[in-house]
Amino acid sequence: MDDLSANSGLETAVAMLQAGHGSDAESRALRVAEAEPSSARAWQIVGIARHQQGRPEAALAAFQRALTLDAQLDEAREACATLLFGLKRPKAALAMTEELVCRYPGTAKFMTDAGVLHEALGAPGAALANYDDALRYSKTDFRARLNRGVLLARLGRLEDALRDSQALVRAYAGSAAAYYNMADVLLRLDRYTDALVAVEKARKLQPEAANILMLRGLVLAMLNRDSEAAASFSRAREHDAEVARRYRLAAASAAGLADEDRLTFDPRQIRLARLLERQKACDWGERGRLVDGMRAMTAALKLSSAPLEEMGLYLTALSLPLKAEELQVLAHGLALAAQTRAGSDSPLRVSRHEKAGMQITGKKIRLGFLSPNFREHPSAQLHWRHFALRDRNRFEVFAFSLHRSEGRLRERIIESCDVFREVSELSSREIAARIALDEIDILVDLAGHKDFSRPEVLALRPAPLQVSYLGLPGTIGCELVDYRLTDANATPLEADGSWSEKLVRLPNTAWVYNDLEEIADVAPSRDAFGLPEFGFVFCCFNANYKIEPDAFSAWMRLLNRIQGSVLWLLDGGDVAQGNLRREAVARGVSADRLVFAPRILRADHLARHACADLFLDTFYYGAHTTAADALWAGLPVLTCPGSTMASRIGASIVLATGLPELVAPDHAAYEAMALRLATHPQELAALRGKLAHNRTQCAMFDTAQRVRELDRAFEIMWQRHLAGLPPENFAVPSELGTSV
Description:
5-stranded parallel beta sheet, Rossmann fold, 8-stranded parallel beta sheet, alpha/beta, globular, single chain, 32 helices
């Protein structure tokens, strides 16, 4: 084929592309490439044609072939970078883009592209540098300024983000996106009136944009203008239901909502969920408003018996100073919503024992455990061990997984069960049907109202007895389950009225621990973790959302009174770190006296407890597995039980370890006890010695004993059921001579 024919063929292919005939264009360009093997442009057109047909991998191969033939063909290089990013290969895309940055220095577009890719790779610092470089060459570049502002907001640098948004609005006064981003930053800064002005300007430019209408609704909700907010949400869904759904889903997912059926567009619930989200980052600016709002909502729910869709409200509300009765109202609303979603409150089946007239004796009890946490999750460490220790002469163990993942912990759980079923991709009704088909006698829910849970399965009653254990430390509500496994320290007798379930009190503690938990065989140094060599190290490895102003203020008073002491906290991200440091400074404590522990392998995490002197528990939602981990690692835990189960499990664990002197009766005593231990090293050393002695023989870490007590509880429940007796509160007898 001569040059004229080749050019003619490629021009024809381009015309076909412009007409939308990608397949024909590809065929024509391939014929040219076959006749002219050195034609990079032919392969470039093949790539464009394949991309037009929605074949990204094939398009990428064509552009790469074009680059092989002509390394100067930067249009093909740029196309490769774009395709690689779309194929979720950002590292390779970045390499291509950085070549373009080098070849075209000062080109803002390529610098901005590099910033986007650095963000995708989790390198925000490098991304900011890219955006800064782009703006240095082109001060008004829209994408660079927009992306920089969005990234700064995500990093919690809201004042800097606002300056970027204002600069963008000045340069692009006709851009709805510019006003939208400014409104979003103002909303995060709690400048709700200013945010409304900005979002109204965005809406004027794009009246039917669903994302703008959704943001407007949220701003109005924060201004307590609920009817207007609801109308804005409704208009967003009318104009573009999918965009509105994605916007709401993105906001809800941060609260742990995995099921879009649970999404709500109720302004009141959305407002409270947003305020609760801020607690997760230790942003306590509107905590008083949040507590008042939660109390007002629980009062309204109690009067109306209305369903509650915003599941994240319950989990984070446990860290607020709410009464157990108020938390029960929230759980009741969530359970009502689950029943509504389930679409039926009638049982799907009766058990094989019931089919025989409930006269069968000597049959194994079939236990089914329902959880989203049969994966790399702290509770999974507990589950595989107590599954493995269950008496197989009396029980069969089925596990139903609500969250698919891979890893060694999941493998251990599978090995410890008689039957393991991955049901995460099934509907709730299909899961319930599977449980019914497996003829489960006692279904044990290990989650409650938490992320990825399925209370709708419980609402369908697929098993004759349903039990709640571990998971969320509170009632599930609406009698979705018959029993809750607990103990007298976590739920004293006076707590019975705040539970929909009947309470089964186990001896010592209901918490089970893995007595084979490995601690890394290393000698960690304080210096390696940024801790002082000789100062006193208080620590709290609770999740950030459990940290609240009352406990934090007590901690800061301790730091102020003990020279050279520090507080060692779990690293919850840059935003949470910044908020906690700001709160410390506000209480007269230098920000550098807060030290943050990065997430590391579990065995190494347990080993680093040796670098701390005393674990300080939070007040309202205390340490659970975290407390057990600290004690297992030899670190004393000081706790102060409150009125709710969430605040009392730490005390249950400490008491079962034989350390009653570490359970404070009130907040003032807690602070005084911490001060004394920090200033009387001999007393603290004696406690450490007692813990080391108790660790090998206390009830807390006798996992086999814990499992025997659980098994006895299941047998008593089942015997009552076979006798035709309704669920009732009862206590499991203690094994003699096993408690410290």
